[in-house]
Amino acid sequence: MPDTASEIILHNYPQSPVAEKARVAFGIKGLSWRSVEIPRLAPKPMLTKLTGGYRRTPVMQIGADIYCDTQCILRELERRHPSPTFFPSADTGLMWCLSRWTDGAMFDLAVKVVLGSAGDGLPKDFAEDRGRLYFGPDWAAGLKAANADLPHLAAQFRAPLQWANTQLSDGRAFLLGDSAAAIDAQIYHAIWFLRGRWDRGPAFLSEFTHLERWEANVRDIGHGSMTGMSPEAAIARAAECNPVTEQATDPFEAQGLKPGMLVTVAPDLDGGEQPVEGEVVIADSDTIAVMRQEPDIGRICVHFPRAGYRVTIRD
């Protein structure tokens, strides 16, 4: 296997707030990585050739192992590069619990504010794509409701921002103290999105002076050391490598999944996305990883979080 088999490749695009979370994570760990820029809108054929259909942003690739969702990305980065840690306190489990809120309700609220504030100004294809992804089948009504409900949505955002502002009011550099942690990246990405994509964002955030100081500290971390890479080169990398993920079973597995079972995996929300099919490699409380065979590439192992994803056993 070539030396480059352990090189980190991030499939992303600059405007993606969730990709910004991953980029900040690279900065916290001071990592070197390769960036493959993907389209903002589907179809994304070069990406889905690796993932088997998953089209959300970002996706991390290391050799022929593909990591979908920042839950998987951060967990794998911590495993491979434990120092400096994403978890500098004794509250690792609590931080993962909190991440389900930052990545769920908090980010959903940011999406509603940003998309709702645009009203009819969103390009039709972008409105349909993101609306379907975040609001489900009745996305047009969801966008309309977000626009009409914008003052309420903004009011709902003030409470968590004030909580974070209070946490930082003792002058600490980051949310847990002197060292940046995963939770800094997980909260930062929603605020980065709000500031950069809502025309009222900067004025709205100006109330929270400690939070603005913290934002600057996170921004100063940077994104590690990035160099570009073409999607063709990333696919070639997967083809020249073999997945390194080993089978793992869990005696408490709630769905009775075992290595070798054929399953599909898809996000819990009906965003109109194609499920990814493959044979189970890992099934535990954190991860579902499946092995798939892709023409012209070979075997690829695709990793998903268990939280927020539905696994369906195929006959």
From TrEMBL:
One short Pfam family name for this protein?
Answer: GST_N_3
Keyword Transferase listed: yes
- According to the record, the signal peptide region is none
Q: What molecular function terms (GO) are annotated for this protein?
A: transferase activity
Which keywords label this protein? Transferase
The answer, when asked if Hydrolase is one of the entry's keywords, is no
Q: Which CDD domains match?
A: GST_N_family (cd00570)
Limits of the GST N-terminal domain: 6-85
Specify the protein name: Glutathione S-transferase
Protein source organism:
Sulfitobacter brevis
List the top taxonomic levels of the source: Bacteria, Pseudomonadati, Pseudomonadota, Alphaproteobacteria, Rhodobacterales
